[in-house]
Design brief:
Layout (H helix, E strand, L loop, with lengths): L6 E3 L1 H4 L3 E4 L13 H12 L3 E7 L2 E6 H17 L7 E5 L4 H12 L3 E4 L6 H11 L3 E5 L1 E2 L2 E2 H6 L3 H4 L5 E5 L6 E2 H6 L15 E8 L5 E7 H15 L6 E4 L6 H12 L4 E4 L5 H10 L4 E3 L2 H9 L18 H4 L13 E4 L4 E5 L6 H4 L5 E2 L4 E5 L13 E6 L6 E2 L4 H4 L6 E9 L5 E6 L4 E3 L2 E3 L1 H8 L5 E11 L3 E10 L7 H9 L10 E4 L15 H15 L4
Parallel strand pairs: 3-15, 5-6, 5-7, 6-12, 7-10, 10-11, 14-15, 14-16, 28-29
Antiparallel strand pairs: 1-2, 2-20, 3-4, 8-9, 12-13, 13-22, 17-18, 18-19, 20-21, 21-23, 23-24, 25-26, 27-28
Helix pairs in contact: 2-3, 2-4, 3-4, 9-10, 11-12
């Protein structure tokens, strides 16, 4: 592959770690660059085909592309009838189900901005996200597994704390709230919906950051659509794809990959409201899923399920990080996910070459910056661009980069040239390929989700008997990193781990809960002169202790 045609400026020409990709206008396969325009285009192209499938209470619910359009227009009409203004923020608190998709697309058609809220949220986390995003309408699923969101929302001080939130619509058993059917019937049919542009706001996600509270990340219309159009090209998908995930659409990578691989190819989104291994196996077999997007720890749960031995997974062709799936005797494919780098802030990937590139093209890298992007490697202290090949912080700007963090000024989000500094370490070579070398921050990436150690430590710092606390991520074959909390107790104090974990579970999403709690001594903690611990040293200590306890050394 001629890599030179994929970049406009390569570091080999300048001697600096600065790479400018080919212009976005030259990228093949792009269509409409607004969310509503994208939906209209794929529905016009594939109108009679099946677009969405969902199994619920023994029923198989199927929507064609035409029906997806009609359901989305019903949501848009309901919002228009209440007088929504362009850019107004509408919250979606739902699992992966048809109504999530019709809500997301309908909000865009109406000129609104969808705010995706995690169904793992506790009441305090939900309150923070509602307050930060200032949503005016909340579309929510009343009950998700054991979480009663109807009761949780009713327990919030809505009138005084969230004055902007004036309409609440419950899906399911949500007594005291407007029902989903009432909401979708409140519109008056298809409207002349407002015109929006590719750079207008499109959606908001929340991701744990380096502070103790989730950060709201706003993306433009084109951030969604560019990625939706490009996934089939990068993944070398040349036929209609039936795409499944067991992870929520309130995380950007899932809605990006699953919608893009399915709808951009004229395929189908196979929905599962929450991950259950046995149900996932049944769905993949029954719906002839070809693309499964999950994490290695979920694939391990599929392998451990009693249905693993007898299930037919022969339809599967595309499974990122799917080594455990390839072990199944019915699976035959030579597809592997192409190396890529990305963040929530870049609406998933910003570097890649694609599945059809060779190992020699990649040369062990994470690919080239994607069309429209510019990448630089800087000294994290001075911000100056480093010489070619030097290791520093990776910074990026381009058409899928976030607009901003909610409540933050541009100066707090980007450098003086408009680059987002990722906190990730790496280098580039003469051809402009990016070599990722790890994170420079203490952020823990577990099972695909970001966890802020500070968020956990802030809670446990006030637990009786705790003198010092430091949460770290240790290497884990399935999760990527496992959340481990290390504690130095007050002399003579007794820490009851089960009580501490129960305390955390009442306040944090499940994926943030530590897998282990290690009781340490002052000597175990590396303390600097200003009484701060060194997280890297604590991590090394934790990894050593866990290796010894598991008999690995």
């Amino acid at each position: 592959m001629d890599l030179s045609r994929l970049v406009r400026t390569a570091p080999g020409k300048t001697g600096l770690s600065l790479v400018e990709a080919m212009p976005l206008a030259e990228e093949p396969g792009l269509g409409a660059l607004t969310i509503g325009g994208y939906l209209r285009e794929v529905c016009e192209q594939h109108c009679p085909a099946e677009a969405v499938v969902f199994h619920e209470d023994g029923r198989r619910i199927s929507w064609s592309y035409d029906e997806l359009w009609q359901h989305s227009v019903a949501v848009a009409s309901a919002l228009a009838a209440q007088g929504i203004t362009p850019g107004e923020r509408i919250g979606i608190l739902m699992t992966n189900r048809p109504e999530f998709l019709s809500a997301f697309f309908g909000i865009a058609l109406s000129g609104g901005v969808a705010v995706a809220l995690s169904t793992f949220s506790t009441q305090s986390e939900l309150a923070h996200m509602l307050e930060a995003s200032q949503v005016t309408t909340l579309l929510f699923e009343a009950q998700v597994l054991k979480t009663d969101f109807a009761a949780m929302i009713a327990g919030l001080d809505l009138a005084s704390r969230f004055p902007a939130l004036t309409r609440l619509v419950g899906l399911g058993d949500a007594k005291g709230f407007e029902s989903w059917d009432q909401f979708t019937a409140s519109g008056s049919g298809e409207h002349e919906f407002p015109e929006v542009g590719p750079s207008d706001p499109g959606g908001i996600f929340f991701s744990s950051g380096t502070t103790s509270l989730p950060k709201g990340i706003e993306h433009s219309q084109r951030a969604f659509t560019i990625q939706w159009w490009r996934w089939p090209r990068l993944f070398a998908m040349h036929e209609p794809v039936r795409a499944w995930t067991g992870n929520g659409f309130f995380w950007s990578g899932n809605i990006s990959m699953v919608v893009g691989t399915a709808l951009s190819t004229g395929g189908c989104i196979v929905l599962q409201s929450h991950f259950d291994a046995g149900e996932a196996l049944r769905l993949i077999e029954a719906e002839r899923v070809t693309f499964a997007n999950g994490r290695p720890h979920q694939w391990a749960r599929l392998q451990a399920d009693k249905g693993w031995a007898d299930v037919d997974l022969s339809s599967l062709k595309y499974v990122p990080r799917g080594e455990l799936i390839w072990a199944h005797p019915t699976v035959e494919t030579d597809w592997e996910v192409p190396q890529a780098f990305g963040t929530t802030e870049t609406m998933s990937i910003c570097t890649c070459i694609g599945r059809e590139a060779s190992e020699a093209d990649y040369a062990g890298s994470f690919g080239l910056p994607l069309p429209g992007n510019t990448l630089k490697i800087v000294d994290p202290m001075s911000g100056k661009v480093l010489p070619l090949g030097a290791i520093g912080e990776m910074c990026v700007k381009g058409p899928t980069l976030m607009s901003h963090y909610l409540g933050k000024s541009p100066e707090d989000c980007f450098d003086a040239e408009g680059f987002f500094c990722t906190g990730d370490s790496g280098r580039v070579d003469e051809q402009g390929r990016f070599f990722w070398l790890g994170r420079m921050t203490a952020m823990i990436k577990t099972g695909g989700a970001n966890v802020s150690p500070e968020e956990i430590d802030e809670i446990l710092a006030n637990w009786p008997g705790v003198k010092r606390v430091q949460t770290v991520g240790v290497d884990d074959d399935l999760l990527g990193e496992r959340v481990v909390t290390c504690i130095v107790p007050v002399e003579g104090a007794s820490i009851v781990e089960d009580d501490m974990i129960a305390h955390l579970k009442a306040r944090l999403a499940s994926y943030k809960i530590p897998r282990q709690v290690l009781i340490c001594t002052e000597q175990d903690f590396a303390i600097t002169g200003n009484e701060k611990v060194k997280p890297a040293d604590i991590r090394a200590m934790a990894e050593q202790r866990l290796a010894v306890s598991q008999g690995n050394c």
